[in-house]
Amino acid sequence: MANESKLEEENYSKYEILKWEVIPIRESIKVVQTEAEKLKTLRLSPSTRWEVTSNIKPVDLYVYLKARFGEPNGITMVTKDHDDSDNMIHWHYSLRAESGRIDFLCWTFRLEICHTLDVVAVDANELLSEIKRDFGRMACLS
User: Fold this and answer.
1) CB 134: neighbour CB atoms within 10 A?
2) Which of 39, 67, 106, 126 has its CA 20 to 30 A from that of 61?
3) For the chain, first and last CA: distance in Å?
4) Is the distance from CB of 80 to CB of 89 less than 8 angstroms?
């Protein structure tokens, strides 16, 4: 019981990962439709897009996200051929946080995290460490 209250107190405060929620795919499609021109010219800067090559295995992140949020819900899943493993993007989660949006994409040769988090000094390794700390909580729920 004390461990649970400690987790609640911490609430992984900087990234608030306990408050993340799935963005419905229809909502993602609306964003693309209504902001098509903006998206055509959008270039993600290094501060909003990370290529993750260490600190977490894509399969570990996938198992965590699937246990917590269900099937991948990112917009790229609309075009995925679910009967074939020959896809450039194997899974994509779009999540909403109080401080912005975060997308996890697993490409054939890399893992990407794109975000609009309004957090001071956002750091990929720090975020991944917070997610890994939450692995135990998810294991207890299954």
Assistant:
1) 16
2) 39
3) 18
4) yes
